[in-house]
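Give me the fold.
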Amino acid sequence: MNLNFFAIIGRVVLALFAEIGRVALFTWAAVSHVIRPPFFWRLLGQQMMRIGFFSLPVVALTAFFTGGALALQIYYGGNNINSESIVSTIVALGITRELGPVLGGLMVAGRVAAAIAAELGTMRVTEQIDALTTLSTNPYKYLVVPRVVAAVLTLPLLVLIADIIGVMGGFVVGSTTLHFNPGVYITNTANFLKASDVTSGLIKAGVFGFIIALMGCFHGFNSKGGAQGVGRATTNAVVSSSILILASNYVMTSLLFAK
């Protein structure tokens, strides 16, 4: 019984390391093809529209209501410590440093990673990717690189817009529901918010964009088993990208804000 238990643990560990190795090799292949010609600029533009522009509504709505809810929570939680003077500061720092990039990344992961995995997974099971290879078209250059580069370029822009809208959500709630002085709110936000707070969130967003596109491409590229395989690839892409976003966020927060 004990031997069977250790055998199961061993198989799980070996499978985990094998999967890590496949992801590492796929990552190297994708990154190495970014700087190699030919470059498919039209496909890059299409993916920037799909990943960036079409994700804007869900990211904007998420940021606005998150900023408003954060303002309410800070006000009710800090009612005895002059919360009116700290709501604007904490909302601005919370949105730009953490909530903007993390929630924006998770929203984009749910939408984009699933779409990429489903698209590439369908191409894999219908042998369209094999057809590209037969036609002397590198599938990494044609399918993976435009999506990865587009996600890395557009997600920081999405997060920057989300930061603005999230802070505005806190301002709207603070000035209407909580009856704060609008001028004082804006002044406190401008005085305490630093450029490094915004840039740290944008750096995180670039990494999150890479993770989202990479996981979507990896699971879609390696899907098998027909429609069920495409479904598994879509689910795995969203789950793995979400977990990696949260894990990498912790690591980058530790590095960027270490004293």
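Residues 87-125 form the longest helix (39 residues).
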